[in-house]
Design goal:
Layout: H1 2-15, H2 22-31, E1 37-38, E2 57-58, H3 64-87, H4 95-107, H5 110-117
Length: 118
């Protein structure tokens, strides 16, 4: 069932200390919705590149509408990029890597990449 899957997932994450803990990250996001900033996750290689920072990250308090629009834009752009890459015989880019590329292209500044990622 769902509980077994979550338990197995957490057990597997504990085995691989290098793996990024998405469950913990999402739980923390839910708790800090009203805070003005996020505690940085650090710069370890296990942390997705678009979330890597050692400085406090401003909470942009995005509305659901703005977040929905951002997610749709990311997916639309990824679809275009992946189609072009596949047409050229290359592999599609993983989502985490693509989000970093997307934010770099859109915002350029490392602090903004982190803010949008968090």
């Amino acid at each position: 069932g769902i509980m077994t899957t979550q338990r197995d997932s957490r057990k597997n994450m504990k085995k691989d200390k290098e793996a990024f803990n998405w469950v913990q990250f999402l739980e923390q996001l839910a708790m800090v919705n009203s805070q003005s900033s996020f505690v940085p996750l650090g710069e370890h290689k296990s942390i997705p590149e678009f979330l890597r920072t050692t400085t406090k990250v401003r909470n942009r308090n995005m509305t659901k509408r703005d977040l929905d629009k951002l997610v749709k834009n990311i997916w639309a752009e990824k679809s275009k990029v992946d189609s072009e890459r596949i047409r050229k015989g290359l592999l599609a880019i993983d989502m985490s890597g693509f989000i970093y590329i997307f934010f770099q292209k859109e915002y350029g500044v490392a602090s903004m990449v982190a803010e949008m990622g968090y």
